[in-house]
Design goal:
Blueprint: H1 19-36, E1 40-41, E2 47-49, H2 50-56, H3 62-67, E3 70-72, E4 78-81, H4 86-95, E5 105-114, E6 126-135, H5 140-157, E7 162-168, H6 172-186, H7 193-201, H8 212-217, H9 230-246, E8 251-252, E9 264-272, E10 280-286, H10 290-293, E11 301-307, H11 308-318, E12 330-334, H12 337-351, E13 357-359, H13 366-376, E14 380-384, H14 386-391, E15 393-398, E16 404-408, H15 412-415
Parallel strand pairs: 1-5, 7-8, 12-13, 12-14
Antiparallel strand pairs: 2-4, 3-4, 5-6, 6-11, 7-9, 9-10, 10-11, 14-15, 15-16
Length: 416
């Protein structure tokens, strides 16, 4: 009796050829601007002590209260698969003393993250992000740089139908003044017990509530942006002036709070118009008290998390990305054993120069090998046999035009 096939868990985003090439391209586009700005790689564990997220992300958030994958390990420790990147990055900065050196600490990271959500298009239980953090200086110019790096990544993919939304969540003084009036307003809404308890922990969370009745009730709620202290307002105005100078357009969204409690000051989100319900493709902001909350110095920081899955979906929705752009430069068909030896030599030489070269393995007949070359999408094909080796030349066939050109084997690199 045949065994039943094992499938991937529900809600997991995974990428196999040929679409994996598109995923890889999108991820590299999002990483490249950070590298160019001097951010350095940080590789982090995919699981952490649960307390890192309850303290760092916030108990009032849906992420902590509903969505974390938490389990007890063999040492009876509570462990959680990382639902986001900033808390783990901050833990590593503190643990390894990076905050004791040159500031700001500028790092980037990428990988899988996990949230126990209801799977739908663009919303997965395992998803991929690229993130950066700039830790140690409270400078509005850094805020603008972080936003510009994200914007550059989306532009590198070719995206156009997205917008940047920004706001300021202020400093402690701003939030304290706003909380008094917001709490008074919320007390008049007659909320259910669970929602009222959530609002008591952090009343800003109600701006992020997805229920239509709560959204309508919050339409007249006082907005934090109207309570900014002089220092917070000046910081936010500077950020906007830098974005204006960089030519980065934005929309002020005073109701934005995002899904994590650690955000303060400058907060932003990139939204794509073609993604339906899950419009966000990335976002971030400043987090002034997070390092201290996790046992470190009282240093400010700012960062972002960009969704690789959603950026790929956005690129496909816009039609700015296709598998046609990710094909081999050359497909070599060897005829016989001696030709295979020479083929391997040529392929390794060309690959060392950055060319993508495929080989017809398996002692196929010429007709079958040519069919494989056509299916591969390779730009050029050469057939290499004893005659070609003796003459030190091959016919280089352009698979788009069908035109063949005689070139020497030694000149293949230049010909390609």
């Amino acid at each position: 009796m045949a065994r039943q096939k094992i499938q991937a868990p529900k809600g997991v985003s995974e990428y196999v050829p040929p679409r994996s090439k598109l995923f890889e391209f999108v991820r590299e586009c999002l990483i490249a601007p950070a590298r160019s700005a001097g951010y350095q790689l940080m590789e982090l564990p995919v699981f952490e002590d649960t307390e890192l997220f309850t303290r760092g992300v916030g108990e009032s958030t849906d992420v902590v209260s509903k969505e974390m994958y938490t389990f007890t390990d063999r040492g009876d420790r509570s462990i959680t698969l990382r639902p986001e990147g900033t808390a783990g990055a901050m833990r590593a900065v503190i643990e390894h003393g990076l905050d004791r050196g040159q500031l700001p600490v500028k790092i980037w990271y990428s990988g899988q993250y996990f949230r126990a959500e209801r799977p739908q298009a663009g919303r997965y239980r395992q998803f991929y992000q690229v993130g950066i953090e700039a830790i140690g200086l409270d400078d509005p110019a850094i805020d603008a740089e972080v936003i510009a790096i994200a914007d550059s990544g989306f532009k590198a993919i070719g995206l156009k139908k997205y917008r940047l939304e920004i706001t300021s969540l202020g400093d402690a003084q701003s939030r304290a003044a706003h909380r008094i009036d917001l709490s008074k307003f919320i007390s008049t809404l007659g909320l259910d017990e669970a929602t009222a308890a959530r609002a008591a922990l952090n009343p800003l969370r109600l701006f992020d509530d997805k229920r239509e009745e709560v959204r309508k009730a919050m339409l007249k709620a006082p907005l934090l942006i109207d309570y900014l202290s002089d220092a917070s307002r000046a910081h936010f105005e500077s950020v906007k002036s830098y974005l204006d100078a960089l030519g980065i357009s934005y929309l002020i969204n005073p109701r934005m709070v995002r899904g994590l409690d650690y955000y303060t000051g400058t907060t932003f989100e990139f939204v794509h118009e073609l993604l339906g319900a899950q419009t966000g493709i990335g976002g971030g902001g400043r987090y002034d008290g997070l390092m201290q909350e996790l046992g470190g110095q009282e240093l400010s920081g700012i960062g972002f998390g960009l969704g690789v899955d959603r950026a790929l979906l956005a690129a496909e929705a816009e039609g700015v990305i296709s598998q046609d752009g990710f094909v081999a430069d050359l497909f070599i068909i060897p005829l016989g054993d001696s030709a295979m030896v020479k083929t391997l030599e040529i392929a390794m030489q060309l690959r060392s120069t950055g060319k993508v070269v495929e080989i017809a393995f398996g002692d196929r007949a010429l007709k079958a090998a040519m069919k494989a070359a056509d299916k591969s999408g390779a730009r050029y094909v050469v057939v290499l046999g004893d005659e070609e080796i003796a003459n030190k030349s091959v016919e280089l066939k352009n698979m788009n035009s069908g035109v063949s050109t005689s070139v020497t084997i030694d000149s293949l690199i230049n010909a390609l």
